[in-house]
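ugh ok fine here u go
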Amino acid sequence: MTSLSADPAEPSDPVEPPRGRLSAALRESDGLGRLSTARLAALLSEGIHQAALGGVVLFSPEAATTPAAIAGGFAVMLLPYSIVGPFAAAALDRWDRRVVVAVAALVRTLAIVATIVLIAAGAVRTGPGLAALFGLSLVAIGLGRLINTGMTAAMPKVVPDRVLAATNSVLVTAGSVITAVGAVAAFAVLAVLGAGDAAVSWTLAPSVITALVGVWAILALPRRHLGPDDDEIGRHDDARTTGDAVRAFGGGLAEGVRAARSSALVWVSLTGVTLGRAAFGITTMLAILLLRDVESAGAGGGPVIAGMGGFGLMSATVAAGMGVAAVVAPWAMARARRILVVAAGAVLAAIAQAVVGPTLNPTALVLGAIAIGLGTQVVKLVADNAMQTDVPDTRRGGVFALQDALFNSAFVVGMVAALPLVPADGRSVSLMLVPAVLYGVSASIAVVVATRSEAEAERSGGQRATTH
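structure:
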């Protein structure tokens, strides 16, 4: 267990730019425009891709969307990268991040093209075709996570330190919103055209174009512009570098854990992200089942459209909450200890879930999703900021890969853990309260660590904790 006490070498307060100087500081950024273009284009492509897959697997007339089928679909798409990601992402701390990201983006684009061909041919309704679809999805989604990890880890290389928190909050949240926009647009198209194979394949086509835009933007940056900054790498011969890289792959997960444990704020915020994703996995499963039940019964869910349209609207409201977080998070981090901002975000999500979840009403769930999106995204933004500022550059890729692994696996674990209790129609008041408990546990951990570190700092001479 990492120490909760203060490190006197760390600053006591987050450094934020004076009001009015943010624009000037951003003009000093070298490569931020290209990096942002690559990142947002990749995430827009990812949103379209994931929604189109949802049309095939979750909401198509041929799909039997049982709780086990939902959990299994998400597990097949997300868990393999959670296992491989920490090891593969060690490349981000060993080789030129620009090259790693560009190659991953090109391979991902080819996987999406192959997916379009497979779906258009109608092959996904057979056992081998469905297996091929999941295999291509593993490649595309896994590489998408690796791309995002690399570009997030590279942010401190193109943004001045004094505006890193604000810029990262904007870009991370803009990325989440852009992903949701792509998904909502795809869901809207499929809701109109139906979730047939031809409609899904046409819906996927724009994701290829946006993916190629991302490749172009990242290749336009100079060599080594995104790091890593390890001077020793350039002095190793190729054979030694390759051997070191292989060993780095093997120790990728352990290195990410060690880097996270080096800062109380990092591991507390990562715990918040993990519990929050498990909670959101449970809510997502129940929401899909509720919307399917409302659609099949022909019952009104209020102004919310049932089925795929309702799920798209819910995704849009989550994205709206995340958009608000882009403003709230940097403001809060500039005025309060970051670990308390984690607690506040988790408390907001807990309250929203406890209020709207037990209603089992699709309209209430959509409205509550705004607050849940805001609270969980605030926690995520603090985690990103802590890893960018409190973890050395040569270890940053590993700890961001660890976060991605936790982010994906916790979502699926939440679904799987709830399976024995999930009714086929998703109508379970008690299960809707479980996410509220998980958010509450996250908030409690943050408050306990903050209180303990403050007390230890006072005993050691009034120094403030690094969990600011």
